[in-house]
Amino acid sequence: MEFSQETLSGILKKALSRGGDYADIFIEETVKTGITYDSGKVKTITSGIVAGAGLRVITGTDFVYMYAGDVDERKLLKLADDISAAANSGKTGVISSLVPYEYSSIIPVSVFPDTVALPKKVEIVERANQAGREYSQKISEVIVRYLDNDQKVSVATSEGRFSRDRRVRTRLVVQCIATDGEKRETGMSAPGRSMGFEMYDSISPESIAREAARIACLLLEADYAPQGKLPVVIDNGFGGVIFHEACGHALEATSVGKNASVFSGKLNEQIASPLVTAIDDGTIPNAWGSANIDDEAHPTQKNILVKDGVLVSYMVDKLGSLRMDHPFTGSSRRESYKYAPTSRMTNTYIAEGASSLDEMIASINDGLYCRNMGGGSVNPPTTDFNFSVSEAYHIQKGKIGKPVKGASLIGKGSEILMNIEMVGNNMDFGTGMCGSLSGSIPTNVGQPAIKVSGLVVGGRS
Amino acid sequence: MMNKDMLLKIIETQPVPSELYYSLGREIEISAFNGSINNFTSAETSGIGARVVQEGKIGSAFTESVTEHSISSILQRARENSEFSASDDGNVLYKGQELPDSEESMSRDLDTVSVEKKKSVALELEQFSREYDSRIINVPHAYYQEISGETGIVSSEKTIAFRKASLCGGLVYVMASDGKDTQVGMAMRFYRNFSGIDSNILAKEAADKALSKLGAGVLETGTYDIILNEEAASNLLGAFISSGASHFFGENIQKNRSKFKGISGEKIGCKLFTLIDNPLSGSLRAKTFDDEGVPTRETVLAEDGIFQNVIHSVYSAARSGVQSTGHSRRGGYSGGVSTGLHDAFITNGEKPQKELLRKLDSGVIISDVEGLHAGLDPVTGDFSLSAKGYRVSGGETGDPVRNFTIAGNFFEIINRIAAKADDRREDRIQTFSSPSMLIPDVSISG
């Protein structure tokens, strides 16, 4: 349901009627389709609509948030009345007239999910299943999840910002299990884009399945990873999860604004090797973490976070800017109307350097080459982080050797960033979901290959 | 119960076997920072998930609009979705019965406590943590939280099952610093009744965790005898036992994803590995029926290391031609139906953790394991996880250690429990709990 500018303006006024400096409203309608394919057949097909609104009033740096599903104008007014009673500071800030923000979309979609018949979507998962099984006789199982999301949002703020966005996302998650006697290993590949069904024109379901099958088969041949502090080459794409965990989270206003980040108060200081320039860019056309506007109706933007190792910007939302005296960076995001927004990453990456992957490998006598990574986590106050490796090889005497498995890499972000010794020239992105205070949101991680020393490799041999 | 009559009326008129899963949730979250309430969040939301089965094919759909019209349209959508699904012997709805409305999981006092009192919990959590020790330099998160709601399941196969539940609790996350080193500590506890919350205990727990890690050193790479404390053991073993990929689940056994295929009555662990799921203990996770309306009961998964019972949902039970054990889990109205444990645990040992330390003599006690969502492989049982803990020498806990990993295999661990303590926490909110346990010869990388 779409509400008029006048209605939204009235809601914001009512929300602030008993006091408060600022109010914003986020209205969402998201249509989702999910198909699960397992054991050679479609297991379930589900579809549904997430629809509701979240209303927020900020007074000083404190806020009240209320949300409700299935809203109509009457329910919104009730929500506004409830929130004004809870905020109730007595003093109301400036309420500006809403000015619509228009833009030309950076996430153009040619085939919207609701225009694609269900059998066409089922065909995608069947193609992936077949390609996975055909890759090798060792592939004993292919599990496929097809997902599409079509989210329409309207955001209006008492500062006068008002905009709508339509965010369409498509993702295919393929897991292949390879079996050899008693040995069983899993490989996964799961690209996603801010696109419609046309994603499959550029990324075929077969190629996704073959990549998952390749990793599963490779792991059958792998020994356990070595142990101890070793030099590591982390390749491009999802390898960027290292910056996401070791640094990215600790640059979000969510932690910086509460002095709960190791990088609080470190603007213009050297926090990383001079080889490192890192960027968070929510404007990359059709990228998984992109959007036209953030969830406070600011246009998304390209933010240079670290330039030549020097910290130049945090990622900042409205509350963060109040706490930190730092400009907005278009970084306000949330999973759905059920979460108040906060500062989050979008598409975050380390920019290209000059080294080649071969040079990096050749420079290492005994180390680890990580081709594919799994997920990770971090404590922003200490930057103690961890992430898992899903495809890796032992480097011996400057050459890539045998595949190894089962390692996690850990370290302290503030130290490891200084230990980035080489940055490659093969930049790429990987698709992820990032969980934090405002829920689980789509984010891209990215980097070219990098060489890092001082990481602890948590293997078993 | 709200909406019960409407749901029953709709389900009566369905042309094919159909099920409606209804839930209504109310949430209050209050957080304190720098001595004031910096966030108050409150909401009530509801939704309906529909499933239909036609010719052995299942389709589902959901909506957050709980009206007769919307529910009828998602039932229609579910029927359309089922047409493109595949037939499976497991796709059946539970042949149920009308169960009495369940209200035993309702808080006795939450509705009578004022908002001001709830706010004071968040404020106290922050204040008590800061006052506990001058080295507590920041309390980024101090929350009071309460969740209450209703769940209802009705089906054309005669299932009528409704329950109400509520609980409340607190979370506090603190930073400690000695000027050189910074460490964090978190405590989170939930209770059925507001009167059960003790801010002092939570603040002390979080602060002690952070303070005791200050000045942590490193460990040499090698093989160590370790104690997993109750929290680390619960988190690590729970990530295997209680995950969707659990080797104890019928569906995973049927689909060759479990090492426990066809081994009923065989040894899977050492003598100390006794694993029980008891949804009827009255704990925070207690449930008298599962998410398909099947009545629950105590199930022994393993006893003295011997495999006992496969865990079934209606789906996997039908595929095996047996009765469901009452372990269907649904990720809310929008989620799919899968298998899940309710309140599973490894039984306590007889002696306090102190005795375990004495028995260990020298080694490491692990207090934290991190990266559980990525650093383990539920299919093979392999894990490699970031950890924190303390050295143990002469049977006493010594200096803190950090920046190391522990690596091993779940199936090896359950065969090598050398001793377990009597300290399992029955008040965990998670679906699995374990006492502290002593495990010899674990790979540590530092």
Can you walk through the features of this model?
The complex is a heterodimer of chains A (461) and B (446). Chain A has 461 residues and is an alpha+beta fold. Chain A is 20% helix and 42% strand. Chain A contains ten helices and 24 strands. In chain A, the strands form four sheets. In chain A, strands 1, 2, 3, 4, 5, 6, 7 and 8 form an eight-stranded mixed sheet that branches. Chain B has nine helices and 20 strands. In chain B, strand 5 (136-155) and strand 6 (160-177) form a beta hairpin. The longest helix of chain B has 18 residues, at 115-132. Classes of the chains: A alpha+beta (461), B alpha+beta (446). Strand 2 (41-59) of chain A pairs parallel with strand 3 of chain B, so a sheet runs across the interface.
Overall structural domain count of chain A:
3
Count of folded domains of chain B = 2
* Structural class based on helices, strands and sheet pairing of chain B: alpha+beta
How big a fraction of the residues of chain B is strand? Answer: 35-45%
User: Could you say which overall geometry of chain B the principal axes of the C-alpha atoms support?
Assistant: globular
Order of helices and strands of chain B: HEEEHEHEEEHEHHEEEHEEEHEEEHEEE
Strand content of chain A: 35-45%
| Cα gyration radius of chain B (Å) | 24 Å
Mean pLDDT of chain B: 96
Q: How many helices of chain A in DSSP terms?
A: 10
Shape of chain A: globular
Number of helices of chain B: 9
End-to-end separation of chain A: 58 Å
In total, how many beta strands of chain B? 20
Please report the two chains with the greatest interface, counting residues with C-beta closer than 8 angstroms to the partner's C-beta: A-B, 75 and 67 residues
Report low-confidence residues of chain A grouped into runs of 5 or more: none
What is the quaternary state of this protein? Answer: heterodimer
What's the count of strands of chain A?
24
**pLDDT < 50 runs, ≥5 residues of chain B:** none
Secondary-structure-based class of chain A equals: alpha+beta
- Biggest sheet descriptor of chain B: 7 strands, mixed
